Amino acid sequence: MSPVFTSPRISFVPVSLSLIPDYLILVNDVENVQRFIGGIHEPCAYTEAKEIAWVSDKLSDNSPVFSMLEQSTGRFIGNIEFMSIQDGKGELGIAITASMQEKGFGTEAIQAFLSYGVERYGLTKVCLRARPWNPRALHVYEKCGFVEYDRTEEHVFMEIDLSKNE
After folding, report:
1. How far apart are CA 4 and CA 103, in angstroms?
2. 163 CB neighbour count, 10 Å cutoff
């Protein structure tokens, strides 16, 4: 798979049907991933059919979602995407598979992806939602420049103003 862009250790490639076994490991890991993503309240089993539909939808919509691969080994790191891009604003989503967590990939990926978002989509502001019970992610987001602007029992809402970096 040819990367669309890279960072020092990460190749950002389009999502792919060939990576579905990796996606299933990622999204079905309740303890390390699933409990932190999306609107899921109860653990659920993601199936191959669901992942095929997800990949197909993302590819047909030409969505800004990428799989991240470690450049030195080709190992799957996780997925990262911008959702709801409109008027220079977008929402960031990222998930990293358990075996690749705690290695600095999250910070590197977010920084590279924000730069890509500015260059490719003209983003000036990016927001995200994180779970309050995910302190590692909150730390990474703050390290990347995101600032909390609201909080509920279910989510911490953060944003970064990318126009300040111009």
Report:
1. 22
2. 11
Please report the domains of the chain, with CATH numbers, ordered by start residue. Answer: 5-165 (3.40.630.30)
Tokens 């891009």, residue located: 85
Give 73-83 pLDDT, tens digit per residue. 999 999 999 99
Query: What is d(CA 43, CA 163) in angstroms, rounded to the nearest whole number?
Result: 38
Who's near 141: CB < 8 A, 6+ residues apart? 110, 128, 130, 158
Please say whether the beta carbons of 76 and 22 come within 8 A: yes
56 three-state secondary structure: helix
Q: What local confidence, expressed as pLDDT, does residue 45 receive? A: 79
49-67 burial: b if 16+ Cβ within 10 Å, else e: eebeebbeebeeeeebbbb
β-strand partners of 148: 158
Residue 125's SS3 state is strand
Under DSSP, the state recorded for 153 is S
The pLDDT tens digits for 122-144 are 999 999 999 888 888 999 999 99
Distance CA 135, CA 128 (A): 14
